[in-house]
Amino acid sequence: MFEQILENVCQRRPLVHCITNYITTNDCANIVLACGASPTMAEAEQETAEIASIADAVDINIGNLNTMTVAAMHQAIGAANQHHVPVVLDPVGAGASSYRMDTLRDFFARYQFAVIRGNVSELLAVGGAASNTKGVDAGAADAVTEENLEERVAFFKQLSTKLGAVVSVSGAIDIIASPEKAYICRNGHPMMSRVTGTGCMLSALTAAYCGANHENILEAAAAATVAMGVAGDIAYRKTTEAGLGTGSFRVYLMDAISLMGAETLNGGMKVEVR
Amino acid sequence: MFEQILENVCQRRPLVHCITNYITTNDCANIVLACGASPTMAEAEQETAEIASIADAVDINIGNLNTMTVAAMHQAIGAANQHHVPVVLDPVGAGASSYRMDTLRDFFARYQFAVIRGNVSELLAVGGAASNTKGVDAGAADAVTEENLEERVAFFKQLSTKLGAVVSVSGAIDIIASPEKAYICRNGHPMMSRVTGTGCMLSALTAAYCGANHENILEAAAAATVAMGVAGDIAYRKTTEAGLGTGSFRVYLMDAISLMGAETLNGGMKVEVR
Amino acid sequence: MFEQILENVCQRRPLVHCITNYITTNDCANIVLACGASPTMAEAEQETAEIASIADAVDINIGNLNTMTVAAMHQAIGAANQHHVPVVLDPVGAGASSYRMDTLRDFFARYQFAVIRGNVSELLAVGGAASNTKGVDAGAADAVTEENLEERVAFFKQLSTKLGAVVSVSGAIDIIASPEKAYICRNGHPMMSRVTGTGCMLSALTAAYCGANHENILEAAAAATVAMGVAGDIAYRKTTEAGLGTGSFRVYLMDAISLMGAETLNGGMKVEVR
User: What is the bridge-based pairing of β-strands C174-177 and A166-170?
Assistant: First the structure.
């Protein structure tokens, strides 16, 4: 299903410009390398426009904003939009502070994103930000479950239309939605949430996959989520079989991404399309 | 001895707001997750007060100060004090530069800390900062040994009184002291000092334990030190048995924290109370 | 060949002040510790002169410049030059943006470096910066191969004369050149380029080796490159034998540096002198 997406990453070795948070930036650079792409993590206002304009994809992660990184992000996203470089946005902790929400509102008023990837709560906060609504309905923030799946798929397809971007929602059940079509993925393990940066890494991986597949952003975003989920399954199995913990799980997760081929992906994935 | 402390961490899943240094922030976030708590590493002046006020504990680490992080720390500590959120201070490299000492003096003049955790030299420098004395007596900076233990325990109990905070001193022999009572711990291995950030990680772990045990800060700080020491013992054994080095030791240390239960802790700890 | 270099690192435990990029700073601190030296990563303008002046070596890495770190670097390099502390410069991504080139030009106009370590493209860009030439001849940027080795060795000896520094060029074939003498090293594996920061780590390791061997900078820089290459060989063997990926490779690389002794180094190295 995703063979061509993966092959393009290895063939084209896309340059992925990440402006992410300093907590997980090493993991983000390593996962971009592990999947066969090439990372650059520049974040000085003085050079981000220059670098983003020659990149194949840009990954913007708001997990640790400050005055300097926000300025650098504006430069990078503006240049990427101008040069038709796809931008993946990870709205980490959207809704956790007004600083983050104000920054997001400003982004949506000015720029175009190819993919917005986060957890359910973040995506719902983003929905609010884009329409200038404050706050997030706590009930609506509930996790995606088999019971509410149908309704959630419809909701995220609408959100994709509203935001003009593929919406990639991570959780026990992942939904990757365009206005017309959604991939649903049931791979991965809760242990992934006991390692910092697995979400940030998935956003960087999504940018890498999109960078090599400009003509097919929805499938690229879906393939990245599925690859991460299958890697999580493999890493969890290795960790528990050896009686190890979250430190080893983190290492095996990176191993699995670096060894991921079409055969492993097809053999392990639990995907449907709606 | 520390069963209830550990159980509270797992039950209450405290939100731990760390403003630490960018060298070890990934390790700090991962150890908070590994022990069952939830980290947030926000450090923008624009949001740290907002986030600290809803956290269960705040961890302040001065290992890599700059104008922006110092401003963010003031916001966070001020808000934490106002909302009765316990603050753990890690005075990394106290005494190494006047910038750090000036920042510490300013902190002590304005704020209240629940725990101050560092190595012997840092704690002695802090003692000087709090009383406006400059410099640290080199002789007094000697490590805690079986020979000077009695005297050191008395000294750190006094320092705890003076600073109005639990004093958690790490070394070959650890001392965790309140004005009246001190825990002495003999776990851990010198290999821990050949991995960067084991001290920073212990401070973050201490904040996580305190965040779930507001009513029992001394025991929470002691339990964190003991858990880290027992994890060090386990990781060292695994590393040397397999002929591996410091890279693997670091992974096994995180594994051991993520797998630490009351049984492992009680079985491995070498603790006395004075 | 390099026994004394290694022994001096263990005996003297040099203090290595790194101002590096936040992507790989944890790895840099860990490799300095792994080899037996002691890292400090301070980068606040307010303290870098103070700390650099008491360090045994300074490592400057331009992988993630911003206004604050550039100011901190000027303070540190200036103080190091004044106190005869050797400075290793890693011109990461030199040529990738005018911001980096302007910063490098400014450095070369004012300061003296002991070693400049990077990949071929970076070193060629540096050559341009030092002579105020813009751009780099794309043909000249080709990798060092057995065919062009003779010519490249001559070129880098000249560049060493021009820059007044040992030039340490990393790639499939490494060249470490002074004006008169060059070490050529054929250790290491391409998997090293699939982990972020192996170059940054080598620069930090070079600073550590130089910090303990002020009287012998060329051999110290060569020994660091050879140790890293041998560690890469060992880590690659362990990783592939166990069917693991880049996450495990990174751990084993650090293990190998922490276990590296003269016997392992002599047994594994593929070095010649020209």
Answer: unpaired
**Closest approach of chain B CAs to the CA of C218, in angstroms?**
27
Q: Would you say the ipTM is above 0.85? A: yes
What does the pLDDT look like over C161-203, one tens digit per residue? Answer: 999 999 999 999 999 999 999 999 999 999 999 999 999 999 9
**pLDDT value, residue A129:** 60
Cβ-count burial of A109 within 10 angstroms (0-12 exposed, 13-18 middle, 19+ buried)?
exposed
- Chains A and C: how many Cβ contacts under 8 Å? 86
Q: Within an 8 Å CB–CB cutoff, is residue B242 touching chain C?
A: no
**Alpha carbon of C25: minimum distance to chain B alpha carbons (Å):** 6
Please give the C-alpha separations between residue C133 and each of C126, C127, C129, in angstroms, as whole numbers: 10, 8, 6
Cα(C160)–Cα(C77) distance, integer angstroms: 19
Strands B15-19 and B57-61: parallel
Three-class DSSP labels, C49-91: HHHHHHCCEEEEECCCCCHHHHHHHHHHHHHHHHCCCCEEEEC
Residue A64 to residue B46, Cβ atoms within 8 A: no
| Structure tokens that stand for A202 in this block | 């998935």
Q: How many CB atoms lie within 10 A of CB B179?
A: 17
- Tell me how many residue pairs between chain B and chain C have CB atoms under 8 A apart: 86
A44 touches C at CB < 8 Å:
yes
- What's the pTM? 0.94
Note the pLDDT tens digit of each residue in A153-178.
999 999 999 999 999 999 999 999 99
In whole angstroms, how large is the CA radius of gyration of chain C? 17
Residues in chain B where the model's pLDDT stays below 50 = 132-139
Name which of C22, C30, C42 is nearest B196 (Cβ-Cβ): C30
The Cα A204–Cα B234 span in angstroms is: 34
Edge-to-edge strand ranges of the sheet holding C15-19: C38-40, C15-19, C57-61, C87-90, C115-119, C166-170, C174-177, C182-185, C271-273
B17 and chain A in contact, CB less than 8 A: no
